[in-house]
Design a protein that fits this description.
- There is one protein chain.
- By secondary structure, this protein is mainly α.
- 76% of the residues lie in helices and 1% in strands.
- The longest helix has 34 residues, at 7-40.
Length: 297
């Protein structure tokens, strides 16, 4: 039975996102104040101007993200625990058998094929976007390119996926699912997941990944499944970026082809990988069926 959807219940699904953004802002301000104090000290040079402080903060953007994600994991884990306790008190908590660990391995190829298909679709979308929209990704791209490989792997491939899955599937999706149908809750939480990336390139991709994450979450009845999916997708993207950077791969080489050729190429890629993802998705649907545990009262 779904709960009514007054403002309070809708707010419960939204405020975790605001908490995450607020945490990042607070950390940035603390760093800004620290750098300002340092700039006033003659011992420290090169950070006396506001622009220097901003540049210094931007140079530590990945570290700020890592700290924010770690704090977010702790708080979101508490929210998930609190929601579970409330469900138990209301008598609506459902417990399921644990899925065999070997079946979680299916999530890895599913994540890879789905990610490749989603990337191809988003690549088509960016071909027809105004440059002003594509340019919203430039700041994120610069941060990623200027970060150490160690920070990239730890933050974007491991910690960020855990933090985001705890927040978007573990808290936001589950809370919206209490007040609206699961499909609508999946769409709402995935839209929020896309918006929080704050650029028009990652946004559509994050929306699609969010839907896939909800799918495996519901099949496995465990937050572990979407975490594996997210870690796999981000790890592949990170490794590809590192290899491209190390080998000097010219990602702009595609510009020698016209839009029609690129669209056809990306579309073929999206279809092939999409079919492969669909096959693995069906296998997951057919083989991963956790049984509800009937608790004896």
């Amino acid at each position: 039975m779904k709960e009514k959807a007054p403002v309070r219940n809708i707010w419960r699904g939204i405020y975790p996102i605001l908490f995450f953004q607020g945490t990042a802002t607070v950390i940035q301000y603390i760093l800004m104040i620290t750098l300002s104090v340092m700039g006033a000290n003659p011992k420290y040079t090169g950070i006396s101007q506001y622009s220097d402080i901003v540049n210094e903060i931007n140079s530590h953007a990945m570290e700020i993200t890592l700290l924010t994600d770690i704090i977010c994991i702790i708080i979101m884990a508490y929210f998930m625990y609190s929601d579970r306790v409330k469900d138990k008190l209301k008598g609506i908590y459902v417990k399921y058998d644990k899925v065999k660990w070997t079946k979680y391995l299916l999530v890895i190829p599913f994540a890879y094929f789905f990610m490749m298909s989603a990337n191809a679709l988003v690549s088509i979308l960016t071909l027809y976007m105004p440059q002003s929209m594509v340019g919203t990704y430039d700041n994120t791209k610069e941060i990623l390119n200027n970060s150490s490989y160690f920070m990239l792997i730890i933050t974007t491939a491991i910690i960020a996926p855990i933090s985001e899955e705890f927040m978007h599937r573990g808290v936001v999706y589950n809370r919206f699912k209490r007040i609206c149908p699961s499909v609508l809750a999946a769409i709402i939480s995935s839209i929020i997941f896309g918006i929080i990336h704050m650029n028009f390139v990652q946004g559509p991709y994050a929306f699609l990944v969010g839907l896939a994450a909800v799918y495996v979450y519901e099949r496995y009845k465990s937050i572990i499944a979407p975490i594996i999916l997210h870690v796999t997708a981000n790890s592949v993207s990170t490794i590809v970026s590192i290899i491209a950077n190390e080998t000097g791969l010219d990602t702009s080489a595609a510009s020698q082809y016209n839009i029609a050729q690129l669209t056809a190429s990306y579309l073929q890629m999206a279809i092939v990988f999409g079919i492969l993802a669909l096959i693995i998705g069906i296998i997951i649907y057919k083989t991963v069926i956790p049984n509800e545990i009937k608790e004896i009262k």
